[in-house]
Write a structure and sequence with these properties.
single chain; 740 residues; alpha+beta; Dipeptide-binding Protein, domain 1; 4-stranded antiparallel β-sheet; 4-stranded mixed β-sheet; globular
Length: 740
C-alpha cells in the first residue's frame, strides 16, 4: 500500500480541536486543536550542522544532472516520466526500503529503516519542518484524559476526554497531573485526574466545542486517507480494539482474541451487544463479523489509498495484493467471518506491529446491510460503476448524515461544511456510561479573525487554543494576564509536516483559474530541470530558514520548539536488544531510532542534525556551496534565475507572514539573480488545499514547493512513515513531490 495514511493538513485557523490538543504520541499533554495551527506551519530552526567526509560530499553524476525538461515541438512544457524521475531522485531510498520491508525482526527493521530514512533525507526531495505542539497554549482539556498514543486514530477519539468548565488548567496543575500519569505508567499508583481536579474545586463540562477549517468530504471512513475526514467519523464508529489513556490496548468491539503460535493467524471474538444506529438514534442492526469483512472488502475496492496498508509492506494480509492488483477473487483474502461473532485474519508472515495497526480506520466495520441498501457493491470495477449513479449510490455522502449508520459513542446529526458539525451522545452505545460529552460541536473558522476567536476561548465557548505572534493572540493573552496564569508550551507529537519539492509539475492553475502561475513555458521547464538536480535541491533546502519562518507565526521565543528535522519522530521506536549492522557498527539496546538515522546521515555525508527543536538543515554557507555546484551542473540547460512558485493562504496572517519570510530569506541567501520566489495567492481554504493537500495525484499539484501537508503515523513501525515515499507500495506522499 502506500502506507495507511493519516494525511494531515496544515491548519490555518487558531482554535483547537481536541484531538490535536491531546498531545504527543509518546509524551503527551492535554491539548485542544489550536496546536494544529502554528505547528503545522512548517518551520525549523538552526543549530549544529553535521560534518561529514569529503568523499561523500560529492553528488554522483547521475544524481547531480538528473532529468532535463525540454519543450515539446509546439514550444510547450510537458511533464516527464514519473518512473524515470523517481528512480533518479529516490532510487537509493527505494532499494534500502525494500531491504528493511522484508525483515520480520523488529530491531533489524529499525536499523534498516534508519538507513533508508537517511537516504530519503539525503535525496533533498523533501525536508521535514515541524511537528504539532511546541506553542504557547491555554486549555481546559485535562491532560491524559484520552489516549496520546503516537499512531492510529485513537488520539482523535474524544469519548473519554475531560474538559474543565470553570477555568483553564494552570501550568502547576498540568505539571502535577503529568507527574501522576508518569508514575502510574511506571506502576506507581493510579491516575485519576477527575478526582484530583474536583478536590481543587474544579467542575467539568458535558459539552465540547472546537473549530475546524477543513470539513469531511465523505462520511465513508473506509474511502478516505485524510485526517480531516476521519477525525470526525472515528467518534461515530468503534473498532476491534482501542488504546486507553494509559497507552494500553483494550478490547472494544472485540472482547478477546488469540494469536497463533506462528504469529500469522489472529482470531477476534466480538461482543454481542454492539449495534448500528441511525443518525436519529434508532437501532438498525447488530454489529457482526460480516460487517468487518464487508468494510475490509469495501476499503480494498474504493482504493482511496488505504488498500496499500493491508498488503505487502503493511499488514501483509494473505491475498490482498492478488485481489487489488491482479483481480483475484476475494475468497483468497485472509479476512474471514468464521461465524457471526468471530473474525479471523491471516497474514503471510509474522508482522511484529500488526496489533498496533488495528486502531486505524482500515480495520473499521461498515454495516453490510445498510451499505448494500444504499447502492453498495463489491469488486473494484463494480464499485467504480456504482458510484457513478448518484441516484442509487447514496452511501456515506457528506451532505446527508442519514447516509451512514453508526456503532460508536456518538451520532453525527449535522454536517454543514462551511458552518457546523454536530455529534450527539449515543445513549444506547454499549459503553455509554464512559462517554463524557453529551454533545461535540465544531464550528467553521476561516482564520480571518483570530482575536475574536481568542475571546471566545477565554469566554469558554471553545476549550482552548495556541497563542501566536502573527495572529495577535499571544499579545492579547499577555495583556489580560491569561498568559502568566495559564499558558504552557504544548508537547510535540509524532506528526511530521514537511516541505516537498515538485520534481515533475503538471498543474499551473486550478480549474477555476485561481492560483495561476505567471511563469512562461520555458520557465516551467527550467524550474523542473533545476529541481531534478540534487545540488540545486540541497541548495534550496539548506537555505530554508525554518526558525525564521516559524518565528513569523509563533514568535521568536518558541521559534525552534516545534521544529523537526527527520520524517519519523526521533523517539518513535527504540531497540530492544543490541544490534550490529552489516558494517560491524553496534547499536546498544535502548538506542532511539533518531540516533540511528543520525549515524547513517553522518556516514553518507548528509549534513543535517536530526534532533527535534533545532533547525538541523539551515546553513546559508552550505546552501551557497551547493548552488555553485548546481550552476555548473545546469550550465546550458537552465536560464537563471529559477522561478519558484509558493502558494499561500492570504486570509491567514500567520500563513501570509510565513510566505513572506520564506521569500525574503531564500532570495537573500541564494540571490535574486539565481532564485526568485513567486508568491501565488489563494483566497480560500478550498483553493489552498486543492493546490497541495487535496491534490488528487502528483500531476495535480499546483506548486513548486509546498509545506501544507504532513503525516501522522498509523501504527508502531517506521515503515508507517517511510512507505509513503516508497513507490513499490504506491507511496502516498509522492504526490507532494509531483510524482504519480
Amino acid at each position: 500500500m502506500m502506507n495507511l495514511k493519516k494525511l494531515v493538513a496544515l491548519v490555518l485557523s487558531v482554535a483547537m480541536v481536541s484531538s490535536t490538543f491531546v498531545g504527543c504520541v509518546n509524551s503527551g499533554t492535554s491539548s485542544s486543536e489550536s496546536t494544529k495551527d502554528s505547528q503545522n506551519v512548517a518551520n525549523n530552526t538552526g543549530d549544529s550542522q553535521q560534518e561529514s567526509q569529503e568523499e561523500t560530499d560529492a553528488v554522483s553524476e547521475l544524481e547531480a544532472e538528473g532529468y532535463v525538461s525540454e519543450l515539446d515541438a509546439d514550444g510547450n512544457y510537458a511533464r516527464g516520466d514519473d518512473d524515470e524521475i523517481y528512480d533518479s531522485v529516490l532510487g537509493e531510498f527505494a532499494k534500502l526500503s525494500e531491504k528493511a520491508r522484508n525483515s520480520t525482526d523488529s530491531d533489524e527493521r529499525f536499523v534498516l529503516y534508519a538507513q533508508a530514512e537517511a537516504a530519503l533525507l539525503d535525496s533533498a526531495v523533501m525536508m521535514p519542518n515541524t511537528t504539532r505542539g511546541g506553542t504557547y497554549t491555554i486549555s481546559r482539556v485535562v491532560p491524559r484524559s484520552q489516549t496520546n498514543v503516537m499512531w492510529g486514530n485513537d488520539s482523535d477519539r474524544l469519548h473519554t476526554m475531560l474538559v474543565m468548565k470553570d477555568s483553564f488548567i494552570t501550568p502547576k496543575e498540568r505539571d502535577e497531573l503529568l507527574e501522576m500519569w508518569n508514575k502510574a505508567i511506571a506502576g506507581e499508583g493510579t491516575y485519576d485526574p477527575k478526582a484530583y481536579l474536583t478536590e481543587k474545586g474544579h467542575t467539568f463540562t458535558d459539552e465540547y466545542n472546537y473549530t475546524f477549517s477543513t470539513a469531511p468530504v465523505t462520511l465513508d471512513w473506509l474511502n478516505t486517507s485524510s485526517q480531516s475526514d476521519t477525525e470526525v467519523t472515528v467518534n461515530t464508529v468503534t473498532g476491534l480494539v482501542e488504546y486507553d489513556n494509559m497507552l494500553v490496548l483494550q478490547p472494544a468491539l472485540a472482547e478477546s482474541w488469540e494469536i497463533s503460535e506462528d504469529q500469522t493467524t489472529y482470531t477476534f471474538h466480538l461482543r454481542k451487544d454492539a449495534k448500528w444506529f441511525t443518525a436519529e438514534g434508532t437501532e438498525y442492526a447488530p454489529v457482526t463479523a460480516h460487517d468487518f469483512v464487508a468494510g475490509f472488502q469495501h476499503m480494498l475496492d474504493a482504493r482511496a489509498g488505504l488498500e496499500g496498508l493491508a498488503g505487502a509492506g503493511g499488514a501483509e494480509i494473505v491475498g490482498v495484493d492478488a485481489y487489488v492488483k491482479e483481480g483475484a477473487s476475494f475468497e483468497g483474502v485472509g479476512y474471514k467471518a468464521q461465524d457471526d461473532y468471530t473474525l479471523v485474519v491471516t497474514t503471510s508472515k509474522p508482522v511484529p506491529y500488526f496489533m498496533t495497526m488495528l486502531t486505524y480506520s482500515i480495520f473499521l466495520p461498515i454495516c453490510k446491510s445498510f451499505y448494500e441498501a444504499h447502492g453498495g457493491v463489491y469488486g473494484h470495477e463494480e464499485y467504480e460503476a456504482a458510484v457513478q449513479d448518484t441516484a442509487k449510490y447514496t452511501f456515506g455522502s457528506n451532505t446527508d448524515v442519514a447516509s451512514q449508520v453508526y456503532c460508536g459513542p456518538y451520532l453525527l446529526q449535522k454536517l454543514q461544511p462551511d458552518s457546523e458539525i454536530l455529534l450527539v451522545k449515543n445513549d444506547k452505545y454499549f459503553d455509554a456510561a464512559s462517554t463524557t460529552f453529551k454533545t461535540i460541536k465544531a464550528v467553521y473558522d476561516s482564520g480571518e479573525n483570530p482575536k475574536a476567536l481568542y475571546q471566545d476561548v477565554v469566554n469558554g465557548v471553545y476549550a482552548g487554543m495556541s497563542l501566536g505572534q502573527a495572529s495577535g493572540t499571544l499579545e492579547l493573552a499577555k495583556k489580560d494576564g491569561n498568559f502568566d496564569k495559564f499558558a504552557y508550551i504544548s508537547e510535540t507529537n509524532a506528526t511530521s509536516y514537511f516541505a516537498g519539492l515538485n520534481v515533475n509539475r503538471g498543474t499551473f492553475a486550478l480549474a477555476s483559474g485561481a492560483c495561476t502561475s505567471s511563469k512562461s513555458e520555458q520557465q516551467k521547464a527550467d524550474t523542473v530541470t533545476a529541481l531534478n538536480n540534487k545540488n540545486f535541491r540541497k541548495a534550496m533546502l539548506h537555505a530554508f530558514d525554518k526558525k525564521t519562518m516559524n518565528a513569523a507565526s509563533v514568535g521568536q521565543d518558541l521559534a525552534e520548539a516545534s521544529l523537526r528535522n527527520m520524517y519519523t519522530a526521533p523517539e518513535f521506536v527504540k531497540l530492544e536488544k543490541d544490534y550490529t549492522d552489516e558494517d560491524g557498527h553496534t547499536f546498544t539496546a535502548g538506542t532511539f531510532y533518531g540516533e540511528m538515522v543520525q549515524y547513517y546521515c553522518d556516514q553518507i555525508g548528509c549534513k543535517i542534525n536530526c534532533k527535534d527543536g533545532v533547525d538541523g538543515w539551515h546553513n546559508a554557507a552550505l546552501a551557497k556551496e551547493y548552488l555553485e555546484k548546481a550552476k555548473k551542473d545546469l550550465e546550458g540547460k537552465v536560464s537563471f534565475p529559477v522561478q519558484i512558485d509558493v502558494v499561500y493562504y492570504s486570509v491567514s496572517d500567520g500563513n501570509t507572514a510565513m510566505a513572506n519570510a520564506y521569500k525574503t530569506f531564500m532570495e537573500e541567501t541564494l540571490g535574486k539573480e539565481n532564485v526568485v520566489i513567486n508568491l501565488v495567492e489563494a483566497t480560500t481554504t478550498d483553493d489552498f488545499y486543492a493546490c497541495g493537500y487535496r491534490a488528487a495525484n502528483g500531476e495535480a499539484g499546483n506548486f513548486d514547493i509546498f509545506w501544507g501537508s504532513g503525516w501522522g503515523p498509523d501504527y508502531g513501525d517506521p515503515c508507517t512513515y517511510l512507505n509513503t515515499f516508497d513507490n513499490a507500495i504506491d507511496g502516498y506522499m509522492l504526490k507532494v513531490e509531483g510524482l504519480y
